[in-house]
Write a structure and sequence with these properties.
Length: about 220
Amino acid sequence: MDKKVYHASIRHLFMPPRIRSLPVDERGFPVPKFVATINGQPDHRVIQSAYLPVAIKNKSCWICGQPLGRNYVSIIGCMCAVNRIISEPPSHLDCAEFSAKACPFLSRPHAHRRDAGLPEERHQAAGFGLKRNPGVTCLWISREYPKPFRAYAGEKGVLFALGEPEQTVWYREGRLASREEVEEAIADGLPNLMSIATGEGEEAVLALNDMVSASKRLLPLAA
């Protein structure tokens, strides 16, 4: 019998056995495999750097740590659905679904990541991560494992290129998102990507425009 005490905000959610196997922090939230331990306590803001190469080599779930099956599910924001570049390995579908509903940062659009108390020496995701909360979360479901590649010149770390999805599922506030909500989130975040593309030149801007057009077919159907 599971004697772990979970946070009141997630007790009503279906919790896959793989999630139930994870340790629980003092707040009552499951501690994903990728989370680092700082001063004896899990810190969900910090990645356990040693686990990244293990997850890639063994094709282990980023969340529960167990072997993945036929589907690879990446938990991404709307801008990653545009440029198809992410900074974390994939997960099981049920682990990803639970995370989209349970993670405070993913399920609460007005939540902000706390920077206070972060260790100076910590593993940060590669690439140009956007600090804003995207408001919507996409589960990118693919039969193809995201392709690892070295980050941009002058940076350390690994990024992943997403292949074609079999399906995309969009969430907002722990529920399925509407097409309008996803479009609003993309419109809100696009200036950040456009600023980077503009700095890289006209070809980059044209390529980004093509990416935006291609992403539209992945959005939820209109009501």
